Amino acid sequence: MTNEKKPTASISDNSKHSLDQRPESPQRPPKIPKISVEEDEDGGDFKQPKEPILVDDTMSQKNPRLQRYLVAIEYIGTRFAGAQKQPNDRTVVGVLEEAFHKFIGQPVSIFCSSRTWIGLREVDHESRHELAMQCGMCRLDAGVHALSNVCHVDVERISKRRPGEVLPPHEPAVVRRAVNHFLQKNEGDIMVIDVRCVTPDFHARYKAQERTYFYRLLSGPEPLSIFEKDRAWHVPEELDILAMQRACRVLVGHHDFSSFRAASCQAKSPIRTLDEISVTEVVSTPYFPSLRDREVSISTGDSLLALPTAGKIDPLDLISEEEKVISPNGESNYEFGIRRRHHCYVVTTRACSFLYHQVRLLVGVLKCVGTGELTISDVERILNAKSVTAASPMAPACGLYLGRVKYDLSSDMST
Length: 415
Description:
Keywords: Isomerase, tRNA processing. This protein is an alpha+beta fold.
């Protein structure tokens, strides 16, 4: 039995979540279950573990014929029940393992850099699932997207014509093309964007140095476009970006973030360092430039995607004169058939590791600052309260994107 405290009831969240359920290695000796749970927004603390990684993570070290690949993937999280593999649900790792299986003709185990349910490494499959259900922590990262998530996988290339004959490892480019071929035969909402050969001891989770999350908010009374469905948080109210940026200055840095962790968070310490938290206004996407925009872009060479953050951007300024009409009272309106654009804001958070639901709770507070429901003094009060009950309602998962997991690959590349 563990000495850790049992998690209290989780804060309300309508999204379904994922459970880390990795295949158990047949070489693993039976042990008395020793539960160790740590998690962050979509994966755990990135420090190298004190205890050695167990059998299923070291198989490539015992079998020199295995090649370990580092694989970067992008996916739309809407139709996934989270990242980690679990029975009877479609997950990122499950779909990726299936594609690799079809490619190389044998099962593989994939280990993700971002794992919401971490630990339980010595608990059997049924016990892990039962405990997660009791804790209310199943499908924790359902609906979260990734511009670049990272995992590693060990592959032994065996000849299909001569069973048992081991061939030289596939080139990374071959792995990428082949796996994407099988992924696109699935739902087409996940893709491999990069593959590298790494050393047998490289671990996608423990070697990660930093991660960056983006959160998209679309502000304005206009109904959300179907192209943005499940891709952003629609806030009907106007947002004060300058107030939100001032609030970011309160939250950045080294703090006790107890007010910004879910009640079910099992991390040993609420202390985290936010290297960056910022709010930027950008052009709402999908964005198709007008004739005027194209002419300006060609003449100046400036990018149209990044907009200044010193003041509000009027969506009417983003359409060309031919798309505007003048109403009888002299005001500019949109021409018939032209969609009204929203203000689009991106909250960027960057740190070594995050607490469970930390980013979404931070965004919830920033949104309330933007609408005027909270002041900068309220943000300071919430941070100092050290209780999640003091925070604003959590932002939904649909606007959250894992943007990047950073590594130092200079000494870990396999030749």
